[in-house]
Specification:
The structure holds three protein chains of three kinds. By secondary structure, chain A is α/β, with parallel strands linked by helices. Helix content of chain A is about 30%, strand content about 30%. Chain A has helices at about 60-65, 90-95, 110-120, 125-140, 155-170, 185-205, 215-220, 290-300, 310-320, and strands at about 5-25, 30-45, 50-55, 75-80, 95-100, 175-180, 205-210, 225-230, 230-235, 250-255, 270-275, 275-285, 300-305. In chain A, helix 4 packs antiparallel against helix 5 (about 155-170). Chain A is elongated, with a radius of gyration of 22 Å. Chain B has eleven helices and no strands. The termini of chain B are far apart. Chain C has 13 helices and no strands. The two termini of chain C are about 35 Å apart. By secondary structure, chain C is mainly α. The chains are: A alpha/beta, B mainly alpha, C mainly alpha. Chains in contact: A-C, B-C. Chain A: Keywords: Antibiotic resistance, ATP-binding, Nucleotide-binding, Transport. Chain A: It holds the Pfam family ABC_tran. Chain A: InterPro entries: AAA+_ATPase (IPR003593), ABC_transporter-like_ATP-bd (IPR003439), ABC_transporter_ATP-binding (IPR050763), P-loop_NTPase (IPR027417). Chain A: This is ATP-binding cassette domain-containing protein.
Chain lengths: ~325, ~270, ~290
Amino acid sequence: MDDADGAFIDVRDLTKTFTVRRRSGLLRRTATRVHAVDGISFVLRRGEMTGFIGPNGAGKSTTVKMLTGILTPTSGRLRVAGVDPWRERTRLVRRIGVVFGQRTTLWWDLPLRDSYGLVRRMYRIPRARFEENLARCVELLELGDLLDVPVRQLSLGQRMRGDITAALLHDPDVLYLDEPTIGLDIVSKARVRQFLLTLNAERGTTVLLTTHDLSDIEQLCERVVVIDHGRLMYDGPLAGLHEVGRGERTLVVDLERELPPIEGIPGARTVRTEGPRQWLAFPASASAAPLVSRLAAEYPLVDLSIREPDIEDVIARMYAG
Amino acid sequence: MHLLRLNFAVALSGFRRYATYRVATAAGVFTNTVFGFILAYTFIALWHTHPHLGGYDQSQALTFVWTGQALLAAAALMGGGFQDEFHERIRNGDVAIDLYRPIDLQLWWLASDLGRAAFQLLGRGVVPLAVGALAFDLALPASPRRWLLFLPSVLLAVVVSFALRYLFALCGFWLLDATGLNALSALLSLFFSGMLLPLTVFPGALGEVARLLPWSATLQVPADVLMGTQPGSAGAGLAFQAGWALVLLTAGRLLQTVATRKVVVQGG
Amino acid sequence: MADGKPRSLSPGPGGRLGTLLDDAVWGLRAYGFIVAMWVRSTMAYRASFLIMLAANFATAGLDFAAIMIMFAQVDALGGFTLPEVAFLYGTSCVAFGLSDLLLGTAERVGRRVRDGTMDVLLTRPVPVLSQLAADRFALRRLGRVIQGSLVLGWSLTRLEVDWTPGRVALLASMVLCGAAIFGCLFVVGGAFQFWAQDASEVQNAFTYGGTTLLQYPPTVFGKDLVRGVTFVVPLAFVNWLPALRLLGRDDPLGLPDWLDLAAPAVALLCCAVTGLVWRAGLRAYRSTGS
């Protein structure tokens, strides 16, 4: 089930490229290729609790969607519990639990109890096990009074606890949590975190969570994986996180007109184009000056600017908040 | 003056909101056109066996069909428009916020619905009518005067349709599940506007009553004004519409006063 | 941590076909229990349900009211009498009503892609189509089926048809195959929205437009239109071709007789094509996301 080296979630050179068509004239449409996930690799062992962070649009949710079998990768190798998520979606989803912070996986108009009944039948959970798991979650997450309330009448914190329960009734080996504490009050946050720690300690459930809240990570995760612009920026303990920003910087170039992606500039690669504007990534340790002079000599430049990695902002904000 | 500008801005935002859904608009045009063809063929069969049915000749009957398809979205003859959103705001209590707007609640929704209607008349009305005119021999007027009368008649049709839907929507203050009401409102509109069959074809007393009801102001009258078949004159048709608009808007205003007195903010 | 032993998904002795069959059975079962849940929850608000059932009944009845008004003025439409038109109306309405009841919510693809809940469906071990079609299952749509059945029943008492077992079987297969063909239109329409999320209204032209079209005799419409709904979108097999046979009339295109009995084959073909289109749509979504 696990790979020989103990990898429970195994991601190798994973990429996902989207083609975005945009209207660029009355009838003309231009297609741009966006590398949402650009060759990331990491390995999670069974029972690890890992924080998955990065700025908006960094490729976090695209990666999670590939790990949960929703999206098909463009290339790369992907195994979750020994299963290829895309090819064997139904087999995979019996072994994972997914919680989306922004939208519920429950049925809006049904009381929690009925929702759980449907989950039981969908996952074919034996009744005794179902009752046992439900009773446990109800107790730990204090859902007792809420079981007969329709989901739409629950507060955000109550709904989140309801969602987490739904994701755990079938004893998943992996739990994906997308912003599980977003918008929750302090009490609810504490309750959710305590629950996750208990779950991980007692059942050895592997947890991958994306969050904007550094305290989630501080309290829950030994390990952090950071991505930015679809690339892996950091993978290690929380303490080493400040190293991250030293990755790549971006040169934003405005050309006189729309041109094919800039090529042949040593030490830089074009990561994005949009009309006459192009984005070039280059190592943060390198000086931008030779790059700029080379560009100016070969291309009709109008304007340019250098952008520090977005991830720094994120981390700065996390530490500030 | 200030109020007028404000209303105009609300209407414009209503127009823009619907204008952003280009694919949906194209899809709607396609569906209107298909329905236009289906109805047109059945009307041809009907008028073939019974020429001058309901006082129309065949090309007038076909003009009626395509005018109906052109106004279907603009005059919300199958319901919709602001209704769903308004209900949602009553249901979740946001309507309490609306009451603090600088414009009166009814006027606000009217302006926004007029903006929507203006877009849908252009976006969803013109093409089906043009297709109908190309595919069939329609009795569209050559004189610009009739078209000039048609425009205010369409405007009044939208106002009457709004006023009717507003009355139904206000009932949502008392009944928190309004789906049944919306269904009823769409039902009455579909049947008594003439959308399925011109009201002049309705037999006997049913026809006479139907032609006096407010729904006839939303399609039957504008179509007659366009074709010059309005009993009396186009002026009489416009007066009929304006009369209903006034009565219904006043009724809406009164009901609104009662309703807002009991604004229940539904907490989550 | 045991997993309740899911059935094997690797192609076993039954091979790919066996797996496909397993999946289909599981999909139907899942559809069944989701539907049962929604019916139970609807019944908690019995009064509201009855009102909506009546509203559905009445809305469906309006079309027939328009037909009655027409026949108050004329004796025949396109050469067909009122009982004959009522027969067409009834069969079209029942077939459409059944498919709308069972698969009507499959059209919510665009909305679900936009609000992101399509992803939620993909994280559950049940075929997406089962979940989509069973979601918010609305028993009130039975109103249209009841209304259509009443009209159909009335027309049967007025038609002078000699009801041999063969003809009865033809009538039954007509309604069932008709429902299957309309059901395919709902699903294809839903699949189409994986590519064009805002175009949900296009399918109304084929579903609602289709049922309206079939309420009238084919002689009313232009030959090109009849050809189109015979060979392109096979609506003519829902009721026109078999009904003309039952009513003992010739079809306006002069097609070979055996086509009148081809509805089951056409329905099967439709289901196969629909399955492929749905899979392609889902695959496109899973490779592009929202």
